[in-house]
Predict the structure.
Amino acid sequence: MNLAKLPIGSFVRIQKCDLQSLVADLKQVHDRVVGPREIDAAIVYDDLDHVDQLPIGVTDHQDGGVYRLTHQSSDSHFDYVVGPQSLKGFLFPPRETVSESVRTDGKWEIQATETPVMRIAVLGPRACDLRALAIQDKVFLEGPYVDPGYQRRRDALFIVAVNCRRSVATCFCHAMDCGPAVTSHFDLALTEMDDHFAVEIGTPAGGLAIEATSWVPMSEVEVAHAKQVPAALEESMQGGTSARQMETGGIRELLMDNLEHPRWQEVAERCLSCGNCTMVCPTCFCSSVDEVTDLSGDHVRRERSWASCFTAEHSYMHSGNVRKTTRSKYRQWLTHKLATWQDQFDSSGCTGCGRCITWCPVGIDLTEEVAAIRGE
Amino acid sequence: MSEKPKLAVFKFASCDGCQLSLLDCEDELLAVADAVEIAYFLEARTEQIAGPYDIGLIEGSVTTAHDAERIKEIRQQCKFLVTIGACATSGGIQALKNWQDADEFVRSVYATPEYISTLGTSTAIADHVPVDFELRGCPINRQQLLELIASLLQGRRPSTPSYSVCIECKRRMTVCIAVARGVACLGPVTQAGCDALCPAFARECFGCFGPKETPNVISLTNHYQKQGVDCAHLTRLTRSFNANSPEFKEASDLLSGEQPSADTGDH
């Protein structure tokens, strides 16, 4: 095996039928290979034994509070965009026991819970979700406090990304400068062409994985042709109705200078404060840590679970709840996501994936809220 | 007299399902019996130890004048009074009578209506006496019941969520049936605690845990109406196990354009 043959940034071509051999090879070195599957009326990540299980010929329609799949007779493997799940759940589990304590004769013994780390290869993440991964890496791994569980799971994650060639009405990655072209945070990146996949090598591990399958080199013209796929999509997203639009210029000042704007009350009248937007957001990282005891009080499990700034317990401090109204909760979420996130992490907290719009049960649309505050 | 805290279980208008949740604890039942003296629990123990009691669990709603008086006596006997289930907490499914003529039911259902003495309404325990804590659900979740008992024994606040069912749905990675299937689901306005059981089986939440904190029921029903769900269906959805809880009642009255009968007298 000659690694020099496939340097990082190089492109190779594999036949569509050879995607299965890539999956089979990945299965040999990973505990799980997961990919997009059609389950319970949506595209979700689940175990992938064979590429036949991919939602081939499936496309999605998404809009505020609406998600529907359509089946067509086509051999397109990836012509749906993001479903309700992102990479978040693989690295930051929705529920996790972090420690267990036992009291014997009045003395406590505390033990960190070490869950075995699964080596997972994920097929299918798009540019918006890789940008979200970069943001979560910063949150969990940089700074003085590193999340050890996240670190172990992150180190064991292998990513086969996919360049989008269509968007849905809730997409706006182009406006957030997060896509649709996949540019980083992947081991391999696929672009689906008419009769083959163009594969970009992102890491040495990606190079090794592709070398085990049948590949042929790509000419410069062919590479340019492949790169044109997300580029053409970006152009059409900028143009009009195939995507949401959001003007991000001066957005931090816009929101922070308008904390008393009447629009916050207007959106609060529609908002359910149910927390769905934060649960599906690929960058929302809040969690709640609870001690769970048995009747004797001698056994305590410390459990961490996904939490939401839309709940009362999230804003509960020693003197009571500091954000009682839905108006203040929605404002806190949106201003953090789009404005103060910049102060905290040097980037926006939004990647334009559109999940918060689609999966809001009443279809509240943050791009519309921002436009309203901008006075458009 | 035993030094263990005394627990009592009282039944009002109900199906017994919630008090059975205590017997259903199976693995933990011996630990419960070890930790507290089950002093009064007609369904489980023949012996009845007199009050006062440290913990009183109340199942069922108030539907008779006799029960309206009985709950006042029980309140005086119980240091910490907890309602268990939708009936005790909001009036239960039987609160549907609040929108109807109870006299007419009595006449058409019972062979000898004169034997029946009932109020025109089914109401929550909290409408009659102060309540210290509520365990929601139809029936209650037994893990929440154990958490309640553990917290009282340990002198801390019970940890039971008041946020939406959606949080639990997303934590277990269930696909939202409202968004993906267009099914009217009450999850976004209903309190968690069931671990989002129904949506996990592609069945809509029918609100058996009652309204969550800061519920916005009317925004949700307005949205479902715009999506084409008919008004009668939404009225039935909001008017079930917790029909009489204020936020569900407000929504169902708005949907149906009717008000509950003002008649609350003895029949």
